[in-house]
Every structure is written in structure tokens, then in C-alpha cells.
Amino acid sequence: MLRLTAAGARAIVDMSYARHFLDFQGSAIPRAMQKLVVTRLSPNFREAVTLRRDCPVPLPGDGDLLVRNRFVGINASDINYSAGRYDPSVKPPFDIGFEGIGEVVALGLSASARYTVGQTVAYVAPGSFAEYTVVPANIAIPVPSVKPEYLTLIVSGTTAYISLKELGALSEGKKVLVTAAAGGTGQFAVQLSKIAKCHVIGTCSSDDKLAFLKSIGCDRPINHKAEDVQAVLKREYPDGVDVVYESVGGAMFDLALDALATKGRLIIIGFISGYQSPAGLSPIKAGALPAKLLKKSASLHGFFLNHYFSKYQAAMGHLLELYTRGDLVCEVDLGHLAPEGRFIGLDSIFRAVDYMYTGKNIGKLVVELPHCDSSKL
Q: What pTM was computed for the model?
């Protein structure tokens, strides 16, 4: 095991397991690292979060891995987390970031039964916006290499896969409407619905996104800034749509609800249009909701990935298989078209979150954390 000496230097107490605590390139794990910390509760990410530059690198416990993060994923709900909406009992300061991919650079003895130093893993765990993150070995996902495409699957891909499988009742010929279809999770809802032989309509906000949606098989992409979505749906789908995969909220939710066919299903996976507001919600016309659902024998479902972790491993396995076979596009947006260029380094996470809320990203927003050899023991 490792411990800190009185002088603060790191020492290996049990030398028989020393190899578990060296990184795979032979360099020492540094004493300090950078990470993002929520220091005040706010939906304004820049106000809520602080980049701390001299934090101790955490040590893995017996069943843990220490992962050196190489890519981390940006999620719309990062600002819900920074606003304290998921667990009001948690008070600042606390770590932030949901998902990462990188190499195992240290691990506990029990964890070494299944993992080795140098192995690449992806994970969903709090605190990924850091140079190093301790990850319980039992939730780590081995992946073939450090590719950001794998990162797109672990939250965004599994959200689409599990929600549609468990709640969508997809079958050949069903009409599926995906809102924010060119985004991180929308891209998978489109493709998985097409794999199920459904007819897919996707909303987006630019001609570039329109082209992307066509490239992944979307039957009727709609740029809502150029076309009236409600008019298109009424004209081209007069009998309604069977399934809605909805992540926008507000007026788009109302529109999608009205577009449901008899026995239609509306799956809410988010409502990004309201996240930046103090309440976290955009107003909807909820007063008529019971009557609208009753009139169509329609149903409304909420989906939160944390409640479906029993389905997670199987979902990841299937998604990885689809990607490996070339049957799934995992679009990554690393910020090449962002005003200040690619998202590289922890400090660029602030820009990446801002970029997401401009609605310009195509695919999953990902930040690269390049490995630096400058800080050694």
C-alpha cells in the first residue's frame, strides 16, 4: 500500500506490490494535479466551478483503479450538477465531471486480479474533470484503446440504447421523432432507431447538422431555424409519431406531445432549454397534459441513466460490438470549429460547456487532457 510520509513525499510501504503503483511508462505518479471543483452552487458553470492547480493525487483503495484521464465528456447536465440539483444535501466544495477514458496508472491489490497498469478503461463516476480519478474497479469498462469515440458511448450511447429498448417499444415501421438529433445522445437515438428499421425524424439547428443527420440515415431531418417543425409534422405525419426521444424541453416538448400518435410514447431524457435558468426548467403547457395523454392513450416516460445501471454492462457490450463492426457512427466534437480552437486541457472545459449551450456542437463534446511529463516524484 502507499502512504504519505511526514515530509509529504510518497513512499511504497509494501515493495512486493511496487509495480502496481508505477505508471506504465515507468515515470512516477506526481504528488499534485489539477482538477475542477464546484466551489459555489450555480447553473452558471463559470461562476460555480474553480480550476484548482495543486490538489493531491488521490490514492486507490484495495478495489480501486487510479486512472490518468486522457479524454473527458461534456454533458448538458454538468450545470445541473454544479447547481446542486441532483443531490441538494451535497455542499461545496465537491468534484465534478461524469465520465472519462484513460490509462490505469495505479491500482489496489484486489483490483489487480482483473486489471493491470497501462490498461485503457472508460468509466462513469463523479470527478472526471481532473488529471487523475480514482475509479472503483467494478464499474470500469475495459476498452481497446484511448479513442474519444469510446467515450461517446458510456453516457450518451447507453442513455439512447437503454431508454429506447426499455421504454420505446421500437419495431419495424414505427415513426420516431428525435429532438436535438445531432447532439451527443441524439446521434445514437437516430442510429439505433434506424437499426430497428424505424422511420426517423430529427430536429436540429443548422444546415451542417442537417447534413450530418442525413449521413447517419435520418429519414427526415428538420432544421428548426429554417422550417416550422410543427407545420412539417402536421403536413407530413398527419397520423402522428409513435415514439419521441426528447431532450430539449419547453416549446419543443409541447410540440412533440401534440405530435404523438394514438398509443404514442414520449421519452424525456432531459430538457436542456431550461438548465441555465434558476429553476432549471423552461415553462410547458402542462395544464392540458392529462387530457392530451388520455385522448390518445399515449404515455409519458422519464429516463435517468442512474436508475438503469443493471442494464448498463449489456448495453455497453452491444454498443461496442456495433461500433467495432462499423454499424455505428460515434461522432466526436473536439472543438475544431470553436472560436478559440480545440478543447485541450482542463481549463478548456469552461469553453466546451459554453459551446454546448450555443447549440453548435455536432456529436459528443469531448475535451482532451494531454499527458504532461513535467511533474514527477
A: 0.91
